[in-house]
Predict the structure.
Amino acid sequence: MELERDSLADVILRLKRAQGQLGGVIQMIENERDCKDVINQLAAVSRALNRAGFKIIATGLEQCVIQGDDPAQAAVDRAQLEKLFLTLA
């Protein structure tokens, strides 16, 4: 299963935001910021990455439903999506 680039525009924005947040975490560590602040920001990056991953999976599910003409392929796609979902869980 391949996802269309246009349907993932939101994911790209989320990942770019997470990239900026991660840069901020690195800078916080280099500037010897308080441990609690670093951990909180790192948790925010982690949540942003998880949301991007879930968005990719949701987009895949949507495409499977829309393009679900081949039951055998749909079963394979569902199995792949379930495996990906569990990777993030």
